[in-house]
Design a protein that fits this description.
The chain has five helices and eight strands, in the order ααββαβββααβββ. It is of the alpha+beta class. It binds a DNA duplex through β3, β4 and α5.
Length: 203
DNA sequence: CATCTGATGGTCT
DNA sequence: GACCATCAGATGA
């Protein structure tokens, strides 16, 4: 299996988000290979996307989104979880793709240890869950995915059978609806809660 | 099954 | 000091 080249990532963020479906995320850690098929993604664009970290310009945290495509962007959220993103955009712009769910493939036993759950179906069916299962932390922030121990490789059992379904998300605040989520239809490992937060109660 | 809530800490204002 | 690209657990149907 070949790692995806930089040229795969140096394209339109939304196109890359769709084409990441069916690819395999692999992490070599402590002599064990952990891997999973990407089954759910979400594109975050640059200055035109109010839901994106990059919307208000570059800061220390979001700087990987402005950096070279093909890197990882990992950030800590809600005081508990890491989210893993793939940096992908045309040169001179910003953008990244949140990996929202994986179908576990290799190292499932170790994933269960990292996650402290027994059920394979809840191992990686959410952005915070999959980073925990794959052993991805802030230390991977900025790493290139085209070389090294964390990478995206071509090929999975879904290679010729991928259904891309775009699902608009409801934002948390007014004006943050512009989100682009893609799934492999009917895959049992897509997130149960598709990132849609209930609207705040009216007073 | 669906819906709601508390825990949690880094980032930005 | 408010916000949050989340999750597990609890509760109700």
């Amino acid at each position: 299996m070949a790692m995806l080249p930089i040229s795969f990532y140096s394209r339109d963020t939304i196109v890359v988000a769709q084409e990441l479906l069916g690819k395999v995320l692999q992490h070599e850690t402590s002599d064990i290979i952990l891997s999973g098929i990407i089954v759910e993604t979400e594109a975050y664009l640059g200055s035109e996307d109010p839901a994106s970290h990059a919307y208000r310009g570059q800061t220390q945290r979001n700087s990987p989104m402005f950096d070279a495509s093909g890197r990882a962007y990992v950030y800590f959220i809600y005081g508990n979880h890491y989210c893993f993103n793939v940096v992908a955009h045309h040169q001179g712009t910003a953008g990244a793709i949140l990996i929202r769910a994986l179908e576990p493939v290799d190292g499932i036993h170790l994933m269960k240890q990292f996650r402290a759950v027994k059920d394979k179906k809840t191992l990686t069916n959410g952005p915070g869950k999959l980073t925990q299962a794959m052993g991805i932390t802030k230390k991977n922030n900025g790493q290139f995915l085209t070389s090294g121990n964390l990478c995206v490789i071509n090929g999975s059992k879904y290679l010729n059978n991928i259904n891309v379904v775009a699902t608009p998300r409801i934002g948390i605040k007014k004006g943050t609806e512009s989100l682009y989520r893609f799934i492999i239809t009917d895959n049992p490992y897509i997130s149960k809660r598709p990132g849609i937060r209930n609207p705040k109660k009216q007073q």
